[in-house]
Design goal:
about 450 residues; 8-stranded mixed sheet; SH3 type barrels; about 20% helix; Fumarylacetoacetate hydrolase, domain 2; about 25% strand; 2 domains; single chain; alpha+beta; 5-stranded antiparallel sheet
Length: about 450
């Protein structure tokens, strides 16, 4: 993808809220999502976020495709999910973006604009859904800072395992428990082994944590036995979203050897509802992570000039907490940390290429996530287990409360946005989830 007319920072929309410099959804963004209006008996629709409004794509189909040039794209807009959108050719998705941009521009005085005005729906009147049925979910471990922080806690003499800098580490997650932002999260129960105990016990997790992550949806997949090369990987990445891979650390500690996370992760994963396309993110490309002297360079199947020069993304991330007491006292959410995806050791293209390298068939709509995104400083760590050093250093909140790990009633809020001189700031919206007591 190349920077084009849709990225012009001077573009303004006739949707006034899209011109707010602080909005996540200016006309330069145009992310895709799926929504339903709870007060109306209707099926889900595909929408584009613009300011604080949603443009219903199925209702403006004629305005976008009156020339019948892209019948497949027109049909994809009328589906109840992004199922058909994800398998479109990247050029067709780009043409959809261009036409939506022209329809929403402030200088558009055509009849189509006035029809489109009637197809806007305020965001606060809809319920956002998972954008597409997710058949498979894989979570990686792509932040060397996070991996090192965790390793120091459990293996101070060897924080990183010998394979870490050679191979993108990941595990197969549970797709059925992925939920959209705003869904409440029930505290999980499971087996734990207390220090000094002779046998495990079963009960609610006492060490509940969040993980600040970014995920991406696979567009076109690959046939089983046919790997995706690093040169082609970007063509298979449709767009990105925020991910919170909730983690029960006490359950994880007892179960993770020898096969890794299981019930400590599978109870819930929250995602933000809007998919920001890779084309919208084009101005915010950065080189792949600069490895330290002495680190091995990626093996040939994970390396290409394009990936080295622009395989990373400059996405600023932050995580906030809102406790029940803060809510009652009308205190704003408290920021816990801020990090950036440019600090990921492995790029999204490398994750996708490695995932398919053994012939694994990735499918349209699969979700792959980065793992916790932590950066180099203490205030940039993307989980409580890092920030509190396994609970040894509690965090003080504005109410006088302290947190080592999450309590019932706590709401975790993830945010992400991109900004760069010469381009318009764009964002991802929020990924939120509030903890309910165990069943």
């Amino acid at each position: 993808m190349a920077i084009n007319e849709t990225h012009d920072p001077n573009l303004r929309s006739w949707v006034d809220s899209a011109n707010d410099p602080n909005t996540d959804f200016p006309i330069q963004n145009l992310p895709l999502g799926v929504f339903i209006r709870p007060d109306q008996d209707e099926l889900p629709n595909i929408g584009v976020a613009i300011g604080d409004q949603i443009l219903n794509l199925s209702e403006v189909e004629e305005q976008l495709w009156s020339d019948n040039f892209f019948d497949e794209v027109a049909d994809a807009c009328s589906y109840e999910s992004l199922e058909m959108m994800l398998i479109l050719d990247p050029g067709e998705v780009s043409e959809l973006r261009r036409r939506v941009s022209r329809l929403l521009r402030a200088d558009n005085k055509s009849d189509e604009r006035y029809i489109a005005e009637g197809c806007l729906i305020p965001m606060d009147e809809v319920e956002m859904l998972i954008p597409h049925f997710i058949g498979d979910y894989t979570d990686f471990y792509a932040s060397v800072y996070h991996a090192t922080n965790i390793g120091k806690m459990f293996r101070p003499d060897q924080p990183l395992m010998p394979n870490y800098k050679w191979i993108p580490i990941g595990y197969h997650g549970r797709a059925s428990s992925i939920v959209p932002s705003g869904s409440e999260i029930r505290r999980p129960s499971g087996q734990t082994m207390a220090d000094g105990a002779v046998a495990p016990s079963f009960g609610p997790s006492k060490v509940l944590d969040y993980e600040l992550e970014v995920g991406f949806f696979v567009g076109n997949g690959n046939e089983q036995g046919q790997p995706i090369s690093i040169a082609e990987a970007e063509n298979h990445i449709f767009g990105l979203c925020l991910v919170n891979d909730w983690s029960a650390r006490d359950i994880q500690r007892w179960e993770y050897q020898p096969l890794g996370p299981f019930l400590s992760k599978s109870f819930a994963t929250s995602i933000s509802p809007w998919i920001v396309t890779t084309e919208a993110l084009e101005p915010f490309r950065v080189p792949a992570f600069q490895r330290e002297d002495g680190d091995p360079q990626p093996l040939a199947y994970l390396d290409s000039p394009q990936n080295r020069e622009r395989g990373g993304f400059d996405i600023k991330l932050e995580v906030l907490i809102l406790t029940e007491q803060m809510r009652q006292q009308n205190i704003a959410p408290h920021r816990l940390s801020a990090s950036n995806t440019k600090d990921l050791y492995w790029t999204f293209a490398q994750m996708l290429t490695h995932h398919s390298s053994n012939g694994c068939n990735l499918r349209s709509g699969d979700l792959l996530a980065s793992g916790t995104v932590s950066s180099a400083t203490k205030d940039s760590q993307g989980s409580l287990i890092e920030l509190t050093e396994r609970g040894a250093l509690p965090i003080n909140l504005p109410t006088g409360e302290v947190r080592r790990f999450l309590e019932d009633g706590d709401e975790v809020i993830l945010r992400g946005y991109c900004e760069r001189e010469g381009f318009r700031r764009i964002g991802f919206g929020e990924c939120r989830g509030r903890i309910l007591p165990a069943s």
